[in-house]
UniProtKB/TrEMBL annotation:
The lineage of its organism: Bacteria, Bacillati, Actinomycetota, Actinomycetes, Micrococcales. It comes from Agromyces mariniharenae. GO terms for biological process: response to amino acid. One of its GO terms (molecular function) is sequence-specific DNA binding. This is Lrp/AsnC family transcriptional regulator. GO terms for cellular component: cytosol. Residues 9-70 form the HTH asnC-type domain. Keywords: DNA-binding, Transcription, Transcription regulation.
Amino acid sequence: MSAPGRVELDDIDRQIVAILHENARIPNVELAREVGVSPSTCLARVRSLRERGVIVRYTAEINPVALGFTLQALVSVRIRPGARHLMEQISDELRREPEVAQLFFLGGTEDFLIHVRVRDSEHVRQFVLKNLSANPAVALTETNLVFEHHTALSAGLRAVI
C-alpha cells in the first residue's frame, strides 16, 4: 500500500526521472534511446510524470559566481515568542529579497534557515542588519558562511528512482 500522495513509478519512469534530473534539456529522442523505449512512448511517459506531479518544473541552474555572488551563507533566525503571529509576514518579506536563494521554515530551536547568495561579507552583514537585526520580532540570528555548496539528488530520493 502506498502512502498518501505517493506516486508509483516503474523502472522506466525511474530512469526518466534520474536522467531528467541530471539534464532537463535532453532531447526526447535521446532520452527515449537511453531508457530503451520509442520516442512517442517516452513523450507519453514524461507527460504522465508531469500530470502525476512527479515532475513539477524544469529549471536552469545558475552559477551565482558568474553573476558576482561570490559568497553564500546560511542564516538561522529565531523569532521572539510574542511575535510568532508575524512569522508568515516575515517569511513573505524574506522571500522577496533578491539575496535569498532558499528559505526553510523549521520546527525546532530556530524558526527559519535562510540560504543567501551575496557579493561579499559586507553584503551578508548588510542583509542581516537590514532584514533581520532591525526587525523587532527577531530574537536571534546566527550566520554561517558556506565554503562549498553541492546540489544533488539526495541518497533517499536516489534510492527510489
